[in-house]
Amino acid sequence: MSIWCCAAARPRTPTAARCTSGWPRTWACPRVQKIDEASAESLAVERIVEDGYQRLRVRLPALLGVSSEINEPRYPPLKGIMAAGRAQIPVWGAADLGLDAAAGKVNLRRLYVETREAHVELIEADSLTEAGARLADKLREARLV
After folding, report:
1. Closest Cα to residue 35, out of 9, 67, 77?
2. How far apart are CA 6 and CA 66, in angstroms?
3. Distance (Å, rounded) from C-alpha 109 to C-alpha 104?
4. Residue 9 · residue 67 · CB < 8 Å
5. Coil, helix or strand at residue 17
């Protein structure tokens, strides 16, 4: 499955991105608000158009232009919240899963806290030009430039 995303806030449109990227046979779908279904061959998407929403099935590979509403959470209705509170969640032990409870769960080889050291050197100079020259010399000495 190949899906490329192009943020809608960028100046390039998904169609222009597809044309300039060289991706062969890619379907461009701008302003996607929601992906309803996904399969190995296609996506069912809902996109924003001038007078509402449009539901499309896009073949893969596809380039999607995503709107700002893409990941707004969907809150469950009160009935669903109440049902979740009454739900019985099964609890399984090691024996129920066919595991040996006496066997070690983790084999710890090494535990340490990484330490980092920083070295700061203040470059003093009479002018900005001289300070820049000294900084360039220090960077050359350290082989960073």
Report:
1. 67
2. 7
3. 13
4. no
5. helix
Residue where the block lists tokens 């220090």: 138
> Is the entire prediction scored with pTM above 0.85?
no
For the chain of 145 residues, list the mean pLDDT of each consecutive stretch of 10. Answer: 44 55 58 80 82 82 72 79 90 82 73 83 90 91 86
Cα 10–13–14 angle (5° rounding)? 115
Bridge partners for 64 per DSSP: 5, 29
Q: Which long-range contacts (CB under 8 A, 24 or more apart) does 36-39 make?
A: 38/1
Q: How many angstroms separate the CA atoms of 132 and 130, rounded?
A: 5
End-to-end Cα spacing for the chain: 42
Integer CA distances (angstroms), 141 to 117, 131, 135, 144, 145, in order:
20, 15, 10, 8, 9
Residue spans of beta strands (DSSP E) within the chain:
3-7, 27-38, 42-49, 52-59, 62-66
